[in-house]
Design brief:
By secondary structure, the protein is an alpha+beta fold. It has two domains: 225 residues, Rossmann fold (3-Layer(aba) Sandwich); 299 residues, Tachylectin-2, Chain A (5 Propeller). The chain has ten helices and 32 strands. A hairpin with an 8-residue loop joins strand 24 and strand 25.
């Protein structure tokens, strides 16, 4: 397969786009460099420049990115072509006939556009798709600037697409779609979140291009233009307001977590959606859970035999540890600790039964490698720590969720710092021997559903996945997906529904068997020492990592 790059004459691109190019570097056979021949439209007047001066200042501070040069080895190993173009009266670039003929003679499979602004696509190039990114959901936000109007309109997520260019702005054939979380208090962080997703979307787009697939995404959204000074002023005021809110919350408020337990009213787990609807009506469950005095909260509950295993945050040092609790009185049966020299934060003890053995797959984000805790049924008071050395990752895994299906074992999870990208690994056994990352991984992007939220329910041929929704706030709601197809080469899931509590925040994690249901929730509590505790916890976390 051969690909072409369309680059600016300086051969520089933003760092996120360099990552995209590195993903396809082995396919690149030619680089196209556009050279402007004439300008046939009127330049902007100084009055228009003054009208947008606030935007240009914002651009310098938050939007404009430092560009990095393309690898010289790549440039020297491929053909370099110069394409002549002019600008029409609308300001769109148009290649001349000689340039079009050159592209047709090279006949690349596709052209990845990293240079020029607006490009008019001639009919002759219909069989040479020119693909590009648009950072915005075209059903609502076409045009520019990326992420600006989403923040102004108080959105919680920002869409983006990879499209085959057409002569209608941001309305071409959609090859890939994803979302990223909006940080309402920071424009720069919002864009950073979005650009982090882009290299993976490009991979998905090229795969769909080759399989002649496209996504059914509405492209009739509003076509936004550069914001006036008045609109930018409103935008800046909103950012300042959100920064103040964030500071006040960090200084004086904190989450008070606890778990809830209830008998299973259905007596089975064939329909997880009915169970989730039930806990929505009984957010604190039917049993009172008192937190041990040595801990500040309980969260992430999973059913472990007749008991429950939870994350418990130690009051002494702010480190999370795993406790096995009696499911009736909630007394501590034992503390479960990984057998490592340096004890770090551990949480989300996902439980998988495998014959006579039980496996816990805890959140290992603060560790160098993912690991599992294995218990034999003849030794309930001891968990053996085993590193999952065959999973091809360079760090621990956040919220790993494991299940077996048709002779394979699958693990959902996030890598460190990737809460908006859900990855999927495949192994031959529960220790993930011969593990590989699924070819379609990451399988989901965005704050809705890209982080695990509890048990994977496998009911005969139906598989249900519980996931978190942190669009509005962390731990404030769950989503239920039905996995309609999963094989070592394919994956498809569909959203069934979502729940959140009215008077409490949550749920955040959910598990169930034929007898019990368990989940967690939290309340926002005012405290004069909340900020101090956060600073101490952050300092200790950094020390633990060093």
């Amino acid at each position: 397969m051969s690909a072409a790059l369309l680059l600016n004459p300086d051969l520089k691109v933003p760092s996120w786009q360099l990552k995209c190019i590195n993903n396809i570097v082995n396919e690149v056979r030619v680089i196209y460099i556009p050279i402007k021949q004439a300008q046939v439209y009127r330049s902007r007047s100084s009055r228009k420049l003054i009208k947008y001066i606030f935007y240009y200042l914002l651009n310098l501070k938050s939007i404009r990115q430092k560009k990095v040069p393309l690898d010289s080895a790549l440039v020297s190993s491929v053909k370099v072509r110069y394409l002549e173009y002019t600008l029409n009266q609308k300001g769109w670039a148009e290649f001349n006939s000689k340039s079009i003929e050159q592209i047709l003679n090279d006949s690349p499979e596709y052209i990845y556009k990293c240079g020029l602004s607006l490009l008019s696509v001639p009919g002759e190039l219909e069989k040479v798709p020119i693909i590009s990114h648009h950072h915005g959901d075209p059903s609502r936000y076409r045009g520019r600037p990326a992420g600006f109007y989403e923040i102004l309109n108080n959105e919680t997520s920002m869409g983006q697409i990879v499209q085959v260019l057409s002569n209608r702005l941001d309305a071409g054939r959609i090859l890939a779609f994803g979302e990223s979380k909006i940080s309402k208090w920071s424009y720069k962080q919002t864009l950073r979140n979005s650009y982090e997703v882009s290299p993976y979307l490009l991979q998905s787009a090229i795969r769909n291009l080759r399989e002649n697939k496209s996504l059914c995404v509405d492209t009739e959204g509003k076509n936004y233009r550069l914001p006036s000074n008045a609109i930018v002023s409103r935008f800046v005021i909103r950012l300042l307001f959100e920064k103040i809110k964030r500071f006040i919350y960090g200084a004086f408020f904190e989450k008070k977590w606890n778990i809830a337990v209830s008998e299973n009213p259905e007596g089975h787990i064939l329909d997880p959606w009915r169970l989730l609807q039930y806990i929505q009506s009984e957010p604190k469950g039917d049993r009172r859970v008192l937190i041990d005095k040595k801990h500040t909260f309980y969260a992430d509950p999973f059913i472990l035999g007749k008991n429950i295993v939870v994350e418990a945050l130690r009051a002494s040092d702010g480190i999370g540890e795993l406790l096995e609790l009696d499911a009736i009185q909630f007394g501590i049966a034992q503390t479960i600790r990984p057998d490592f020299a340096k004890q770090r934060h551990v949480s989300y003890p996902y439980v998988l039964g495998e014959g006579s053995e039980t496996y816990l797959y805890p959140d290992s984000a603060e560790y160098e490698r993912p690991f599992v805790l294995r218990r034999n049924e003849w030794r309930n008071d001891y968990f053996e720590t085993l590193e999952l050395t065959n999973i091809p990752v360079a760090s621990g895994i956040t919220d790993p969720s494991v299940f077996a299906f048709e002779g394979k074992y699958y693990m959902f999870g996030n890598l460190r710092g990737e809460s908006s990208m859900l990855r999927l690994w495949i192994g031959d056994d529960c220790m993930f021997s011969n593990a590989i990352e699924h070819p379609l991984s990451p399988v989901r992007f965005g704050p809705k559903g890209s982080r695990s939220g509890g048990k994977i329910f496998v009911n005969h041929d139906q598989i249900f996945r519980i996931a978190q929704d942190f669009s509005y706030g962390y731990g404030d709601g769950l989503l239920l997906f039905r996995i309609s197809r999963i094989t070592p080469s394919d994956f498809q899931e569909d959203l069934i529904g979502e729940i959140k509590f009215d008077l409490l925040h949550g749920p955040h994690t959910f598990d169930a068997n034929d007898k019990l249901l368990c989940w967690d929730y939290y309340c926002e509590k005012f405290s004069l020492f909340a900020g101090y505790r956060r600073l101490v916890a952050a300092a200790k976390s950094r020390i633990r990592v060093l």
